[in-house]
Amino acid sequence: MRNFLSDTIFKRIIREEQVGSTNDLAMSLLDSDEEGDFVVLADSQTSGRGRRGRTWHSPPGENIYMSLAIRPNVRLSRATILTFLTGVAVCNGLRACTGLDMNLKWPNDIIFNKRKIGGILIETRVDRDVVHAAVVGIGVNVNSGRAGFPREIKDSATSLSIETGLTYERDEIVLSVLKEFDSLFCNALKRDTTGTETYIDGSVARKLVRKWRERDITLGNSVSVVTSAETISGRAVDIDEMCRLKVLTDDGHERLIHSGDVTLRI
Ligand code: BTN
């Protein structure tokens, strides 16, 4: 791992047997002024978290739970592209390592065979509209069997092993995903000519959105989107350059949604 790291932005990987949440550990290290960029990797989590306060199933010995701690120093309004960058990196990394092609589901799900195989949870520290610290949490179900999934996710979740009958080397997948993330991130992040401000390159961002769109299973489908304020029903027609989902509602209005949970309606 050490040799590999020297070619990336990541200075070290902190490995733990068990943590509450790799995101929490990574953020507390960043908060206590630990220099970015590093990775926290755990064999299990006792309080693994998903979006909207959901629990992330995190048993030992089976899956990947990791958090990439970075200091992007980009404007908050452009930071949502980090989720898309991570989604594309996870898909590329998994394909390089397993030959399998994943799908994505707006805004943060990794999907295989219509079931959820992984998720992304990005948490940030923002000061004067600039994201000075970000933790990119990635969970991938690798070797879990269906019997071990909690009842609530038994029908909607899957793992690489369930899908192929094979057992996978988790470290290989971790390195493959880190390599992809590093290359996309270095390509996307630019410094202005004075060297004082960092920004996300517009054309790279547009390319990442295109890549996400190609894999997104919501587009063209009838969906229900639960946001913090309402439930919107209609057809998902596009994802725009600000990473918003465009829905043509059942009563004929166009809505641009920043964040929410999407269910496909059959
Ligand atoms: C989601 O789909 O809702 C996001 C799931 C993110 C899970 C990962 S596992 C590693 C990191 N630590 C956490 O507590 N959550 C993320």
What topology emerges from the helices and strands here?
Layout: H1 2-5, E1 12-19, H2 22-31, E2 38-45, E3 64-70, E4 74-75, H3 81-98, E5 103-105, E6 109-112, E7 115-127, E8 130-140, H4 160-164, H5 170-188, E9 189-191, E10 198-200, H6 202-215, E11 222-226, E12 231-239, E13 245-249, E14 254-257, E15 261-264
Parallel strand pairs: 1-2
Antiparallel strand pairs: 2-3, 3-8, 4-8, 5-6, 6-7, 7-8, 9-10, 11-12, 11-15, 12-13, 13-14
Helix pairs in contact: 3-5, 3-6
Bound molecules: biotin.
Low-confidence runs? none
Number of helices: 6
Main beta sheet, described?
Answer: 8 strands, mixed
What is the H/E string?
A: HEHEEEHEEEEHHEEHEEEEE
Spell out which ligands are present. biotin
User: Could you tell me the mean pLDDT?
Assistant: 94
> How widely separated are the two ends?
45 Å
Description of the structure:
This protein is α+β, with helices and mostly antiparallel strands. 26% of the residues lie in helices and 33% in strands. Strands 1, 2, 3, 4, 5, 6, 7 and 8 form an eight-stranded mixed β-sheet that branches. Strands 14-13-12-11-15 form a five-stranded antiparallel β-sheet, with no helix packed on it. A hairpin with a 2-residue loop joins strand 7 and strand 8. The mean pLDDT is 94. Bound molecules: biotin (BTN). The site of biotin has 21 residues, from helix 2, strand 3, strand 7 and strand 8.
